[in-house]
């Protein structure tokens, strides 16, 4: 009886480990590609909880910029005119502070 209880506990631990590795989470700032034996099977671009076959499928994550962050980095650049001491007019398109 004691041997059967140990075997049941070991099976529960193995099944729990396989069950927990069957799911993966994609964050809002990530994209994921699912590989099966080195070939691309699926891709996940939206955030959420996804399923994969343990041991057979591998997942590789890639970080991306969010659309809000990329919009914040883009701004309209207006050309400015600059008059130098030698009375030469130049047009500057970009500058930083």
Describe the structure.
The chain is an alpha+beta fold and 97 residues long. The chain has helices at residues 2-20, 67-73, and strands at 23-26, 30-36, 39-44, 48-51, 57-63, 80-83, 89-92. It has one domain (23-92). The protein contains two helices and seven strands; from the N terminus they run αβββββαββ. A three-stranded antiparallel beta sheet has the order 3-2-5, with no helix packed on it. A two-stranded antiparallel ribbon has the order 1-4. A two-stranded antiparallel sheet has the order 6-7. 1% of the residues are buried. Mean pLDDT is 77; it is low at 69-73.
Give the gist of this structure.
The protein is α+β, with helices and mostly antiparallel strands and 97 residues long. It contains 2 helices and 7 strands. It has one domain (23-92).
| Termini separation | 77 Å
Output the helix-strand order.
HEEEEEHEE
Structural class: alpha+beta
**Proportion in β-strands:** 35-45%
Number of domains: 1
User: What's the helical proportion of residues?
Assistant: 25-40%
H/I helix tally: 2
Low-confidence stretches: 69-73
Rg, Cα atoms, Å: 27 Å
The 3D shape can be described as elongated
Mean pLDDT: 77
Properties at a glance:
elongated; 2 helices; alpha+beta; 7 strands; 97 residues; 3-stranded antiparallel sheet
How does the SSE layout of this entry go?
Layout: H1 2-20, E1 23-26, E2 30-36, E3 39-44, E4 48-51, E5 57-63, H2 67-73, E6 80-83, E7 89-92
Antiparallel strand pairs: 1-4, 2-3, 2-5, 6-7
């Amino acid at each position: 009886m004691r041997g059967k209880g140990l075997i049941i506990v070991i099976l529960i631990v193995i099944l729990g480990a396989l069950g927990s590795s069957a799911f993966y989470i994609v964050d809002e700032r990530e994209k994921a590609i699912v590989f099966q034996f080195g070939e691309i099977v699926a891709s996940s671009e939206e955030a959420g909880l996804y399923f994969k076959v343990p041991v057979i499928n591998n997942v590789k994550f890639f970080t991306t910029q969010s659309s809000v962050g990329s919009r914040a980095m883009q701004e309209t650049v207006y050309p400015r005119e600059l008059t130098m001491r030698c009375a030469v007019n130049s047009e500057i398109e970009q500058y930083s502070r």
